[in-house]
Amino acid sequence: MTSDAAIAAARKPGPRQGPLAGVRIADFTWVAAGPLATRFLADMGAEVIKIEDGRPGHPRIDRIRRVTITRGTGAKSVGHDYGDFNLNSSGMFNNYNRSKLSVTIDMTSPRGRELAERLIALCSVVTENFAPGVMEQWGLTYERLNEISPEIIFARMSGFGHSGPHEMFRSYGPVVQAVSGLSHISGLPGGGMPSGWGLSYMDNQGGYQGTNAVLAALYRRNQTGKGTLIDLSAVEAGVALIGPKMLDVTVNGATTRGGDFPSGNRLPDNAAAPHGVYPAAGEDKWIAIAVMDDQQWAALKRVMGAPDWASDPRLDSTEGRSAAQDELDARMSAWTAGQDKHAMTTSLQQSGVPAMAVQDEGDKERDPQLASRGLYPVLDHPVCGPSRFEGTPIKFSRSRPDLWRSAPFVGEDNDYIFRDIMGLDPAEIADLKAAGII
Amino acid sequence: MQPDMRPYAGLKVVELSEDAAGEMTGKYLAELGADVIKVEPPGGAASRRIGPFAQGKQDGEHSLHFWFYNPGKNSVVVDLDDPRGITMLRDMLRDADLLIIGYQPARLAELGLDYAELQSAFPSLIIVSVTPYGLEGPWADYRSSDLVALAGGGQLNVSGYDDHSIPPIRPGGNQAYHIAASFGLAGAEIALLQRQADGLGQLVDVSMHDSCAITVELAFAFWEYQKAPMLRQTCRHAQPMMTHCALFECADGRYIYAVIMLAEPKPWKALVAWMEEEGMALDLVEDRFFDAKYRQENFGYVSEIVECFFLTKTAEEAYHQGQAREIPIGMLHAPEELVDDAHLAARGFWRDTAGIDGPIRYPGAPFVFSGFAIPAPARPPRLGEHNGPFRRDALSLAR
């Protein structure tokens, strides 16, 4: 057995490597979008210090710490879990907060806020994604932060942005997707319920754009010496992702309620057929096939063994295939049903047909391409054990990601930050502890 | 550099991408101030032939797909299948800061483009390769599309309807390409910061497949920590078990998204108080319904009452009245309703650009900075519109 001391030694923070080494971030983010934004920054070498609720019982701790997706318990749907939590056992938290540090500070107390300001003075970036008003309550406006640490970059990630009539609206991923139009544009035609998204897509994309905005601000500050406030509205980021349909509306005056929109798995604006998701062998197994041109259609016919129905000359043009989509989809389903989704993927791809098994996470764990890219690095964690992490989807020839540690325990780095970085004397740290501030 | 200039003002980007991932990467860099020169083949980029089309005109200059991804760029025609075209490209790269390029390995070999050689010829150049599967690995030359990438990445497996006889349904809007573009930009920006420190460029290899694969939220953690498979559910999170419907139809036939079954007490209390004010809460005011577990066990009954309540309101009313009570309700907007949204208008989100035959209204950038403004982009270029300023012909290069 490894002793606690040995674990602590192995997890001890030190100077960071990577292109963002030297950038220190006071990170007030929680849940998903914000922590995803700072995850990439931490992986690339920034010293990201999570500031978590230091009060007894940690009532306002990062809520992802209370999402009990963890080893050794039965799977329960998120939002349907009750009872006791080990705040250091969440797999969701582990995945989103690796490479970061954690300190605890009671931000509701004047002494806590004073301590936080002393920490911010040593940082050049502050990040947050609270509901509107929280940072203001603590007095941490952009103006104040800029006094504490001149030319600071203050990245605020919220649902609706920090101005405008809906500034105070409450949101999380699925609400953002609804309001920004992304849910409505996804589903079967016919005016029924859209299928939308099966995840908080905008937590991911909002987080990614938060990262990108901070990187642009860092580059600019290196050039000009100037900091900036970043006001990232997830709803706006979502509207910016609607794609060409948005211009169909603003330029052509298209309307999207009723009629053939949304178009399910078909591409209504392009003659591409067959284009769909078809059943494969096994329960709820599927394959996506996207024939974009005549050459790919010819290849698909060969893979299917040139069946008689496919020799119909009407089907040799994209226009003809588009007109026959209902029939084509039925034919395709009859051909794919009962076949292994991976074997079909291989034979179709080797013949030049864009196709891919609908992969679940188990398929992805065995995916030879992802494995060859090393997408899922493994890090140990004292409670979670050795675990795979969602790694970096970019390979740099020179800049190396540095995933130096799994996610921190609550307040794991209090001593390192308060003593080694901020230089507080042990008596003061002890006193802050005794007073319930850290 | 003026302090209020955009971060990448003065940078020159050569873009050799015909898919939405590379083109969106270039669009982001243009929004952040870079000059982007789009290199197109003699017939124009493939994206010029993808619909929808402005007024239905399929002449290569009216693709709204092309317009969406390519505002503010310059267009230069270069035939890379002709050796003189490669010479022109190399000439353009001499003073370029970034090259965004979308070719897969087989096509690169066909063109005789070798990134190691380009890096030694242009040591400060940042090459941002944005491809379907990355530059190496057994699938590096596999074909892709938005649907195919969302299948491989895991988004399709979690998106669709409660009825699992219906196949997974593609979330709309080219999102696989958009996910890749977010990392295309991130990769470019990291390389720019690295170059700012040491003056050297590098090769940045972004994979759409990898990018999608890490964008699945709960599904990854449920599998990694509990080996729990996910079940698709209509317009809400896939989970290991079926949960309750979160869409409610309103009086005008439109939908709102509202989760009423979760353990969090505050929104539930606010909803019941709201229903009570309008005399529609019935016995939901009773204490037993404040227990989330009890609510879930009696979901059929609870949801029937809530469904009736929302049917008395338009979606707009439900959205605004609910939000006024701090309930996280979202109306499912159609894109055409966003154009009139008071909040987006007040924030100056939309960008109006004069197009070749009329105005084009663009959504703004995904980020707003206090230190500098991101203006409306210039209109998307006509094919070869900027050959003059940016391309020297092969004859003059030979001299």
Shape of chain A: elongated
Given this structure, which CATH class of the largest domain in chain B is correct?
Answer: Alpha Beta
Q: Oligomeric form of this entry?
A: heterodimer
Instruction: Classify the fold: give the CATH topology of the largest domain in chain A.
Output: Rossmann fold
Q: Structurally, how many domains make up the residues of chain A?
A: 2
Structural class of chain B: alpha/beta
**What is the helical fraction of chain A, as a range of percent?**
25-40%
CATH topology description of the largest domain in chain B: Rossmann fold
The CATH class of the largest domain in chain A is identified as Alpha Beta
The side-by-side strand order for the widest beta sheet of chain B comes to 3-2-1-4-5-6
What do you see in this structure?
The complex is a heterodimer of chains A (438) and B (399). Chain A has 18 helices and twelve strands. By secondary structure, chain A is an alpha/beta fold. Chain A folds into two domains: 4-239 and 374-434, Crotonobetainyl-coa:carnitine coa-transferase, domain 1 (Rossmann fold); 275-368, formyl-coa transferase, domain 3 (2-Layer Sandwich), CATH 3.30.1540.10. In chain A, strands 3-2-1-4-5-6 form a six-stranded parallel sheet, with helices on both faces. In chain A, helix 2 packs across helix 8. Chain A is elongated, with a radius of gyration of 26 Å. The two termini of chain A are 30 Å apart. The mean pLDDT of chain A is 95. In chain B, helix 1 crosses helix 8. Chain B has a six-stranded parallel sheet with strand order 3-2-1-4-5-6, sandwiched between helices. Chain B folds into two domains: 12-215 and 349-398, Rossmann fold; 247-336, formyl-coa transferase, domain 3. Chain B has 18 helices and twelve strands. At the A-B interface, helix 3, helix 7, helix 8, strand 6 and helix 9 of A face helix 2, helix 6, helix 7, helix 8 and strand 6 of B.
Key terms:
heterodimer, A: 438 residues, alpha/beta, Rossmann fold, formyl-coa transferase, domain 3, six-stranded parallel β-sheet, three-stranded antiparallel β-sheet, 18 helices, elongated, B: 399 residues, 2 domains, 39% helix, 13% strand
